[in-house]
Amino acid sequence: MAQLNNLGYPRVGDFRQLKFAQESYWAGKSSLEELQAVGKKIRHDNWQTQQAAGVNLVPVGDFAWYDHVLTLSATFGVIPARHQSKDGSINLDTLFAMARGTTGESSEHSCCAPQSAACEMTKWFDTNYHYLVPEFSADQTFQLSFSQLIDEAKEAIAAGYQVKPVLLGPVTYLWLGKAQGDFDRLSLLDSLLPAYQALLAEFKALGVEWVQLDEPALVLDLPKDWRDAYQVAYQALSNSGLNILLASYFDSLADNQSLALSLPVNGLHIDLVRAPEQLKPVLANLPEGWVLSAGIINGRNIWKTDLRSAAAKLTGAAAQLGENLWIAPSCSLLHSPVDLDSEQKLDPTIKSWLAFAKQKLNELGQLKAIIESPSASESQAALLASDEVVTSRASSDKIHREDVKQRVANLTSEASQRYSDFANRIKQQQAHLNLPAYPTTTIGSFPQTPEIRQARAAFKQGKLSEPEYIAAMQEEIRDVVKAQEALDLDVLVHGEPERNDMVEYFGERLDGFTFTQFAWVQSYGSRCVKPPIIYGDVKRSQDLSVSWTEFAQSLTNKPMKGMLTGPVTILCWSFNRDDISRETCAKQIALAIRDEVVALEQAGIKVIQIDEPALREGLPLKASQQTEYLNWSTEAFRISASGVKDETQIHTHMCYCEFNDILPSIAAMDADVITIETSRSNMELLEAFNTFSYPNDIGPGVYDIHSPNVPEKEWMVNLIKAAGKRINPERLWVNPDCGLKTRKWPETNAALKNMVEAAKQLRQEQA
Questions:
Q1: Residue 74 placed within a domain
Q2: What total of structural domains would you count in the chain?
Q3: Cα–Cα distance measured from residue 355 to residue 346, given in angstroms and rounded to the nearest whole number
Q4: Which domain holds residue 749?
Q5: Which residue in 68, 269, 494, 706 is the catalytic one?
Q6: I want to staple 648 with a disulfide (CB 3.0 to 4.6 A). Which of 382, 467, 644, 733 is the partner?
Q7: 528 a known binding residue?
Q8: Does 527 show up as a binding residue in the annotation?
Q9: 611 is in an annotated binding site
Q10: Catalytic site includes residue 651
């Protein structure tokens, strides 16, 4: 009998309960005990849901108060000096300080230095989830210092569940961290392993039988010394007395397959959605007695599984392995919304094609029954229902638009090229815009006040008429423009009060998208996103942003920047189609954005920003697949941007990703100005510019908008000077590292005031 396995479950609650509890606690409106009570209920609900679905070993340790990598850092005492308490203790406030920074103001939740920068945050492999990067010092020590993982295992066991602790494996943990100084972080492995041994001993003492160690780095093209580290690490952990399930996901093991199968563990999880081709060789070489956890249900998308196809893929494995076959999602369901049953407004046909986390658990059970008893009436009913979904999607007239397909097919190389090169364009733009040295701007959004959110909600609910809503948003835009003029910013934005989300907003206005009420997915901490669903061919059939931007420009003589989201980011931050290629879908979106860019220019907007923060995120994990992706993704951006005249300045923005290794491709996007996040890493991300001559203008973010800290002027001056050592100061812009949507007005005004003063000081020094 095959078993059901799950790698992890969404931790935010079916209606974002954790988010609201976190933010209430951070605001001082509720107690730590109240926050902990919300977390406990979410955990117990999750365990009950998984057990009811037939999951044999309920995962624990997949819950996190902010981020699971951060939890592991706290568990082993990896706390940067600036966040260490005087007595060395670690608690939830320590984690929150590492994630958000501290303001310097007295607080009942303070735990460390009066004012300290947040830890660097970046993307979790090729997902839109963000993790807190561990900071390792050369004299780093590791010891059990924070008991959350152990306490939650005790909690679940006490509640009657058979559990499987889930945590990041030692090699991937070191891989994801950064050395603070000139040393090799892999050299820390020998001192890290005893801490893992101690943690596993705690689980063993609780009666735990299986532990899941996630090693997603195994799907990467690892250097030899990192590959060799796996043998060292898992030999050290092999005497724990526990059964170890080694979990890989997001791609194929490929060249690391023999390595994974040689480790002294008891089972292996592989991703058969991203890399179905690896099943046959893994089965042929699986050691005797090992468990194979087959990730056959897509943990990262929302389409129902083709049960007939999935069952056919696993039939041989079931015959070979019996109860040692564990049927599983491809990865943690952290990346999936919680429950489709909550959705009451979706088109019934489209809803019939979907499965969220709870429904994916049910699919596991259906698949198990089909494999074991294919002729049973329940199995036949499940197969017929699945077949109907497959047929419905393939033939639906909701999906296919011949005019869109033809437009993509007719694309030529000219569609992705500006009229002139950057050297000629920038002269025309400088003459037209007449900007000073170190021009200042922001990334687009300004604080979304309760009044803004209430007005949007009232409009959606029909409680506010369209003229009333437009008037309310225009009043907000007036205030934002007035505030920016008072601050003396050089290139203004309209503040985006009408936008709920930078992807959802555009998807709501493009054909081929649909939307949910409650399909929230955690992006980081309390930040949740509700990705649109791309179900069909994409087309622009209405104004996306022109009317708002045109109104804002009418209020000022300064340049007003049009704000759009780029095609690759819309693709990556949506639940996209699995029936056409990502490239084709990206080019459909690019053409729709191109139409909007041209319309903005025709409305008199001469600075247009097309954000592509997800360009690096979408990069395949295997080097052999990356060139093809970078070619079509940068082409898609250029298609969206290249319909305008030379004097129109195109900006793009990227944040919270390691993009140094794709700088040539970023340059190939040929944006006139790129703004990037660099403040959390203290301009470290600009080191690549020492060896790569970036050809166009660049705005390295000079302060971290995810922290409530108000940066000092001198601190920003020093950051810009540091950037000027790598990039010609004549090509530097001054801006925050991301949008200001989540901030409050007092801190926003204070930070931007200091930023503008920093730019003016640099101009004076340059004069």
A1: no
A2: 1
A3: 13
A4: 424-766
A5: 706
A6: 644
A7: yes
A8: yes
A9: yes
A10: no
Is pLDDT at 681 greater than 90 in this prediction? no
Residue 445 marked in a binding site:
yes
**CA dist 738 to 132, 149, 585, Å?**
17, 33, 26
CATH number for 635: 3.20.20.210
Q: What is the mean pLDDT of residues 441-467?
A: 94
Q: Is 666 annotated as a binding residue?
A: no
**For residue 704, what are its two tokens?**
């971290």
Structural domain contains residue 377: no
The Cα–Cα gap between 250 and 269 comes to 11
From residue 120, how far is each of 132, 168, 229, 372, 700 by CA, in Å? 6, 18, 25, 48, 15
Q: What CA–CA distance (Å, rounded) separates 17 from 35?
A: 10
Q: How many residues does the chain have?
A: 767
Q: Is residue 706 part of a domain?
A: yes
Cβ count near 68 (within 10 Å): 25
The residue to which tokens 């991300």 are assigned = 685
Q: Is 496 annotated as a binding residue?
A: yes
Residue 629 corresponds to which tokens in the numbers above? Answer: 């992706």
Give the residues across from 697 on adjacent strands. Answer: 673
Output the 3-class SS for 686-745. Answer: HHHHHCCCCCCEEEECCCCCCCCCCCCHHHHHHHHHHHHCCCCHHHECECCCCCCCCCCH
Residue 296, phi then psi, degrees to nearest 5: -100, -20
Please check whether residue 546 is in contact with residue 596, taking contact to mean a CB–CB distance below 8 angstroms.
Answer: yes
pLDDT in tens, 512-567: 999 999 999 999 999 999 999 999 999 999 999 999 999 999 999 999 999 999 99
Per the domain annotation, does 685 fall within a domain?
A: yes
